[in-house]
Every structure is written in structure tokens, then in C-alpha cells.
Amino acid sequence: MNDSEISSRSWWALEWRLAAIQNGMRDAIAYRLEFLLEIVGSAAVPVILQLVLWYSIFKTSGATQFAGMTYQELISYTWMTLLFSQIRGGDLDFSLIEMIRTGTLNNYLLRPVGVIQFIYMRGLGERILIVTLCLGLGILSTAFSSVSPFQLILGMLLALVGNVIAFMIGAALSSVAFYWENAFAALMVKNMIVSLLSGELLPLTLIPHQYSWIWKATPFYLFVFGPTQVALGKWSASEWAVQMGIGLAWIIGLSLVIKLLWGISMKRYQGLGG
């Protein structure tokens, strides 16, 4: 292979990824009201639950601290989870399972691109829009809080790593669809576990210290809890770098798992339907 062929392939690899991201952005803003309502709806429930809980603990019972955190600290945590939980979101893994189940995966296998990468790149277009929106709201809020824009940006970068990990876990679990028709159940269970161990519903510091190994053994805390700790200044820049390294290690490991699982599963794929 000569230099011109290598250059051509490199350009094509970049071109289809950028095109997939642009396509995802266009799909997201095609129905702007629906796009915004989906964001607001997915964010409202956990935030309302937390606000009601903190109000009942502090204002009703008269407590001054809860698990070592003050009312203001918990409100700040809730606000930050509102931003980072939106970055972690997305249902690309459900779409992947539906494609396998119905046979529409055939349409993607015929394309000269990686199927899983293509689906993620399309979803990344929507996430980029949400990250931009959340970052803008977050920076605006720094004028009324002690959070610095630099800490917020570091938190956003960690949340993006968490977004990649979240999709890769879903993609690995989606291989179950090659063997089990009701594979959606696997993703539903995963989402429930993620909601508990990502820090989206409650700060993970509320978990007793002797059980903290449970959430530390998973990458889920990198989705919401970790970015929130960085943005609020609870984690230093050096701790952020360590957590980024951990996140990248998870990405490398999951990429190998996905390659193995999909390599095995595709051998039994019949491609009926679509």
C-alpha cells in the first residue's frame, strides 16, 4: 500500500465519522420542541425527587447535615447532576438491539464502516448539542456559585468519557440479542443499576464506607458522580487525571470485549428481515 492509498483511507475514515455526527445533529434538531421536551422530561424526575428529599430532611426535621453534607452542598450537587446526567443519557443500545431483532442490521453491514462506531457517531451528534447546552447553562450558573468554569469544563470532559463507556457497555450487552429475543430486559436491568451507582439519584458518599468498594469497582460513577465532584471542587486536578486514566482503561478493555462478543455473535446472525 502506497502513501496515497493510506492517505485516502485515512481521509475516508475521518469523512464518514464527521458525516455521521452531522447527520445525528440534523436528526436531533429536526423536531426542536420534542428534543427540548425530552431533555427536560428526563432531567425533571431525579431532580424533583432529590429536592423533595433534601427539603424533608433539612427543613422538616431541622437537620443541619446529612452524611456530612449541608443543605447547600446537596442542592449544588443536585444542580450539577442535572447537567451531567444529560450527557450520560441516550438510548443507542436499545436501537442496536432493535436492529438485530428486526434484521435492519443488514442495511448497516453493507456499508464500508464499522456498525457500532457508526451508530455511536450518529448519537454523538445529539450529545454534542446537549453538551453545548449544558456547558452554557453551567458556565452561566458559575456567576452565582463558587464553581469555576475551569472545573466545570474538566467535569464535562470526564462526563464525555463516561458517555463513551456507557455506550460501550450497552453495545456489549446488545450482543445478547443474537441469542435472546427479549434482550431489552438486559438493558433495563443495566439502566436501573446505573441509576443507583452513577450518583444520578443520590450522592455516592451516602453509601457507607465499608460498601464503597461496590461503586468504585464499576465505571458507573464516572458518568455523573465523578464529573460532579470535579465541578464542585471536591476532586483536585490530579484526581481528575487519575479518573480520566481509569476511564480510558475501561474504554480499551470494553473495546476488546465488544470485538470478541460481536465476532462470536455475528457467526450466528442470519440477517432475516430488514
Helix count, DSSP H or I runs of 4 or more residues? 11
Q: Bin the strand percentage.
A: under 5%
- Biggest beta-sheet profile: none
Q: H/E element string?
A: HHHHHHHHHHH
Structure summary, number of beta strands: 0
Helix content: over 70%
What structural category characterises the helix and strand content?
mainly alpha
Termini separation: 36 Å
Low-confidence regions: 2-8
**C-alpha Rg, in Å?**
20 Å
Average pLDDT confidence is 80
Topology:
Layout (H helix, E strand, L loop, with lengths): L2 H28 L1 H29 L10 H18 L3 H11 L2 H5 L5 H27 L7 H26 L9 H14 L14 H5 L8 H7 L5 H29 L9
Helix pairs in contact: 1-6, 2-3, 3-6, 3-10, 4-7, 6-7, 7-10, 7-11
